[in-house]
Design a protein that fits this description.
Length: about 80
Amino acid sequence: IGLNHPSEGGTPLNLEQRLRPKFHDAHAIVFGHTHQAQNETKDGVLLFNPGSATGMFPAKEKTFGILHIGKELRGEIIKL
């Protein structure tokens, strides 16, 4: 599991493309910075962003995430 905010900051645009090379062997990449919830699997990698618990711009709603780690690895986005 790769975990990153990202530390280098910068624009949240194209964040997925910047993070994937950092975690090339990861089964999941958990990240923030965009304030947009994301819970999808692409090319076998779970891309999980809990969004924004405060609903701060550009979030459209208040959300948080739960990452379930067991026989399966899956994310869950909860709307507040």
